[in-house]
Amino acid sequence: MITTGQIIRCKAAVAWEAGKPLVMEEVEVAPPQKHEVRIKILFTSLCHTDVYFWEAKGQTPLFPRIFGHEAGGIVESVGEGVTDLQPGDHVLPIFTGECGDCPHCHSEESNMCDLLRINTERGGMIHDGESRFSINGKPIHHFLGTSTFSEYTVVHSGQVAKINPEAPLDKVCIVSCGLSTGLGATLTVAKPKKGQSVAVFGLGAVGLGAAEGAKMAGASRIIGVDLNPKRFEEAKKFGVTEFVNPREHDKPVQQVIADMTNGGVDRSVECTGSVQAMIQAFECVHDGWGVAVLVGVPSKDDAFKTHPMNFLNERTLKGTFFGNYKPKTDIPGVVEMYMNKELELEKFITHTVPFSEINKAFDYMLKGESIRCIITMGA
Ligand SMILES: [Zn+2]
Ligand SMILES: [Zn+2]
């Protein structure tokens, strides 16, 4: 390609300050260095994690920055040492990686790569600590190593999942993060058996992904727990059969669920990040065999408190990161589930905006109106 080895000038939505609307800028994107690939992003979507770091209320702010980590695109060029990807490949950049060479990557049980595990504080590339984005020579920070709110971005090759080129990128781009986090929490970690009951705490994109996983596994009852009753109607499309709004009960939620299910659900998945919900999710599973899985990210000073007898009574508590999926090894398979019509993605996509109107996607999410808003690049 004629752009190989050259700087590319393109549009990017730059966050100059915390909480301020993104500004469409012309940026320079440097060629990929060792073990990096440069990707032409075609579709990206907004995830709550982008909004959280853009608001920068709970962490050290790092600006100016290009956010974005759920996306689909095509490899434009590859840097030195990249052997598994080539220009033209259809790919999903992923916020966490798989180097293939560390104890975690060698373990079948882990996806927490030592080299490329999510790092929210890093603003440059691992290779040299530098940014590949600049405006008039001033560097713009990366986000999660993906920075997909740009027409071109540079990503470590270990954070790039090569997918079926037939897969529509405007749909499968959402497989990059939230959906897979919830889906994997159920399918690969909670592993409900056919006919079992599953409680899902939090009915945002991740929780709905978890519900979808429970439906795919053949769960007989899927109990959705959320403080927002507006979410209930929508959640039915994702297999949720019953709803519990903690505000409508005097009893603790774990007791409400135990009463509904003759002693507790078989599996539960917690997707809110509230430590109270985590405790409820654990205590609402059935003794003898119940398994609870924590997905939501808690606050810094939270502590999980439960009576040890809840464990001795043969309940299991697990935690998961990105649904235990290894980005390069497993994510192409999630795309295949969609291609084989086992997994429906369309119902997660509630809005679409052109790239020039990316700030609308933030509005939809802040108002709680969207599950996923697809942002179409080049529009
Ligand atoms: Zn690794
Ligand atoms: Zn995300």
From TrEMBL:
Residues 34-164 form the Alcohol dehydrogenase-like N-terminal domain. Its cofactor is Zn(2+). One of its GO terms (cellular component) is cytosol. Its EC number is 1.1.1.1. GO terms for biological process: formaldehyde catabolic process. InterPro entries: ADH-like_C, ADH-like_N, ADH_Zn_CS, GroES-like_sf, NAD(P)-bd_dom_sf. The keyword Metal-binding applies. One of its GO terms (molecular function) is S-(hydroxymethyl)glutathione dehydrogenase [NAD(P)+] activity. Belongs to the zinc-containing alcohol dehydrogenase family. This is alcohol dehydrogenase. It comes from Barbarea vulgaris (Yellow rocket). The lineage of its organism: Eukaryota, Viridiplantae, Streptophyta, Embryophyta, Tracheophyta.
